[in-house]
């Protein structure tokens, strides 16, 4: 009986343990826009292959958006200058 109980509970315990190892949901581009230093770290890790996946895409999208905003602000400042 003990062997049967152990055989039935072992997969459940293993599945629960593996579920705990799942990574958290990837951070969004909006997160990286607000946390530029973290975006830079993630992009550096992505470039070396130490970091992969959705966070690399989100960090790159955040960089594109912040660069775009900086260009727009620069253009507006130049247009206002006498």
Automatic annotation (TrEMBL):
Name-wise, this protein is: EexN family lipoprotein
- The protein's superkingdom reads Bacteria
UniProt keywords (A-Z) are:
Lipoprotein
Q: Which PROSITE patterns match?
A: PROKAR_LIPOPROTEIN
